[in-house]
Write a structure and sequence with these properties.
With 618 residues, the chain is α+β, with helices and mostly antiparallel strands. The longest helix is centred in the middle third of the chain and has 18 residues, at 359-376. The radius of gyration is 25 Å and the shape is globular.
Length: 618
């Protein structure tokens, strides 16, 4: 656990308002002064806060505090014993990211609440206002062990606003009213405030405490409260993860403001990151011949990795399976399987190899597996079915990722782990699932909503498909998904195997698309309907559009392009905008500039992808 930090006191007149008639209040403004956080004591003397955006109230007066096993909870009447202020404005370059450089600009307050009654406990709230949102975390100083059993934190709202949430980590984000929010709702949740911003509630820098989800308060109407996955015990000082309120004028600006999450995490802890290589990957079944054929496809498509999925060391869910051996699960065998020959062949072709390891083997054998896998020449591990939620398993998982970094092994965590920004600190964590991807063959509406919800908190391994007949979308929609969805390890052709994969011109999107980006912009869209994102790598732009609900025609502005530069645009759209031929992709080439628009016609389950490169000089 980290010990408490004390900010230096700066000139308050720059960004802090204190009024003479309310000495128990502290106000903190974002750098652009659109967000104002006010800390005070409510009518019962309880520590509280209130949040506004451009003069409109977003979070009504809401309580703050912790529940403790020893000494009860932070209850009763308090005073604001002290308040210290700081500010920071810097930029940093992520090893992996959706833009080449991120600005970390905030104003901060460290507020100490002291109880008036015996038996209660003093605590601190460290709060930050960014232009992108507001965040806070709890500090509690102690020389004795501390067990936090819950929180008194509230996010109170004025009206019954529309909200997007999901009950399951891999479930659909659905629209409902705030008053219908159930228990154990997955973070982030997105709320559209009437006459105000669109906000996302979530958690950042979860490293060594119990996970937070959300539920509706039973005591206070229209109030969201944390749902913690158990207790957190420390040997002394306690520091919670961050609770954040990300904000944007609309859902599009919210997408552009998701740098809030990595900014709330510690800088990169790995000194030499040269071995961390993002890229696209193809999955092979357990057969030497097929794995080599997949390597050949990876080379032709410009991919970086081959993934060997579950079963190569025995039944993945058996505690008897030994991940130091190559003992193929008969239920998953597809013929002869020589792991070391596959690794040799892949390495010879500059293709790295990821291997799947279920959490049962990882928990028992991690310290043995890591040096062994490095010796074998493995590039990374796909963690399967990891335990999540409790403090024990939160600590285990993040320590495991640290240990992988010591052996220069990259990581893809699958199943129910959701990101909170750890990839900034340990960028060998390339990606994670925590998403309803193409393994479930979701609806186009689900796919659109992911961009406005799940992807706000970090990369997601969606496992893009293309040829499978079970896909509920068009192939143009799948091409666009590789652009819209951010994942430094992008799995493509998930259910597609040789010789099904036919490399043709329409696959230029998969061949050329990047997995990390220099620049990202929301172009247009509406949650539940469609989304268009533009991303730049070097001098080349990619635009992905995912559509749902109805056949749609859009005219995309290209004002994100460099002025006075002409671009050759390759446009990939639905072969049948009416949806009659979902497996057909139409291709067109045109010259465009920043003042132009591109007109697109998409099926109700369709999409479009664009590749724009500077036109060759005549």
């Amino acid at each position: 656990m980290k010990t408490l930090l004390h900010a230096s006191t700066l000139s308050l007149g720059l960004f802090v308002g204190l009024t003479a008639d309310s000495p128990g209040e502290v106000s903190l403004l974002s750098p652009d002064e659109t967000i104002v956080a006010r800390f005070f004591l409510n009518e019962n003397g309880e520590p509280s806060y209130q949040l506004s955006y451009e003069g409109s109230e977003v979070i009504q007066p809401s309580r703050l505090g912790l529940k403790l096993k020893k000494g009860g909870e932070t209850f009763g009447r308090y005073t604001i014993a002290s308040h210290e202020f700081d500010s920071s404005d810097s930029t940093w370059k992520p090893v992996l990211g959706e833009q080449a450089e991120i600005r970390d600009h905030y104003r901060q307050a460290l507020i100490t609440f002291s109880p008036e009654e015996k038996g209660a406990t003093s605590f601190q709230v460290e709060a930050r206002c960014y232009d992108e949102g507001f965040a806070f975390r709890y500090h509690l100083a102690s020389e004795e062990p501390v067990t936090v059993t819950g929180e008194m934190t509230e996010f109170a709202f004025k009206e019954d606003y529309p909200l997007w949430s999901t009950k399951e980590v891999e479930g659909d984000y659905e629209k409902e009213s705030l008053s219908k929010l159930g228990r154990n709702r997955i973070r982030p949740i997105v709320i559209q405030v009437k006459d105000g911003p669109t906000i996302a509630l979530g958690e950042a820098a979860l490293v060594d405490t119990a996970r937070m989800r959300f539920q509706l308060s039973k005591e206070k109407d229209l109030t969201v409260i944390p749902h913690l996955a158990g207790e957190t015990t420390t040997e002394g000082d306690f520091m919670s993860s961050w609770r954040y309120v990300m904000m944007g004028d609309d859902e599009g600006e919210l997408i552009e403001n998701k740098t809030l999450v990595p900014n709330l995490n510690e800088p990169c802890a790995i000194k030499d990151v040269s071995w961390i290589r993002p890229g696209k990957a193809i999955r092979a079944e357990l057969a030497t011949k097929q794995a080599k054929a997949c390597v050949d496809i990876a080379v032709k498509m410009g991919f970086s990795y081959l993934l060997l999925d579950a079963g190569w060391y025995g039944p993945e869910r058996s505690n008897e399976s030994d991940a130091t051996t190559v003992t193929v699960d008969p239920a998953r065998s597809h013929g002869d399987f020589d792991l070391h020959e596959i690794i040799r062949y892949a390495t010879e072709n500059d293709i790295g190899v990821f291997v799947y390891v279920n959490r049962r083997a990882l928990e028992r054998q991690l310290d043995t597996l890591l040096p062994l896998y490095k010796e074998w020449g493995i590039s990374g591990i796909k963690f399967g079915f990891v335990n999540v939620g409790s403090q024990k398993w939160t600590v285990w998982l993040h320590e495991a990722i640290k240990k992988c970094a010591e052996y220069e092994l990259m990581v893809d965590v699958h199943d129910h782990y959701l990101p909170t920004g750890w990839s900034r600190t340990y960028p060998n964590l390339l990606t994670q699932e925590g998403i309803g991807g193409n393994e479930q063959m979701p609806s186009p509406e689900h796919n659109v909503n992911l961009a406005y919800t799940r992807y706000l908190c970090g990369a997601g391994d969606y496992t893009v498909c293309y040829y499978s007949g079970r896909i509920q979308t068009t192939r143009a929609h799948q091409l666009a998904a590789s652009i819209v969805y951010y994942s430094p390890l992008q799995l493509i052709f998930w259910y597609d195997k040789p010789p099904t994969i036919k490399i043709g011109p329409e696959l230029d999107v998969f061949r050329e698309v990047a997995t990390t980006w220099d620049e990202t912009h929301f172009v247009e869209g509406e949650i539940g309907e469609y989304v268009a994102l533009a991303r730049r790598k070097g001098d080349k732009w990619f635009v992905g559009v995912l559509n749902s609900q109805r056949q749609r025609e859009v005219s995309l502005n290209l004002d994100f392009l460099a002025e006075e530069t002409r671009y050759e645009a390759r446009v990939f759209t639905d072969g049948s905008p009416e949806g009659a031929r979902p497996k057909e992709v139409s291709r067109a080439v045109k010259e465009v500039g920043s003042q132009d628009q591109v007109n697109l016609s998409m099926a109700a389950n369709g999409g479009a992808a664009l590749i724009l490169a500077p036109a060759a000089a005549e």
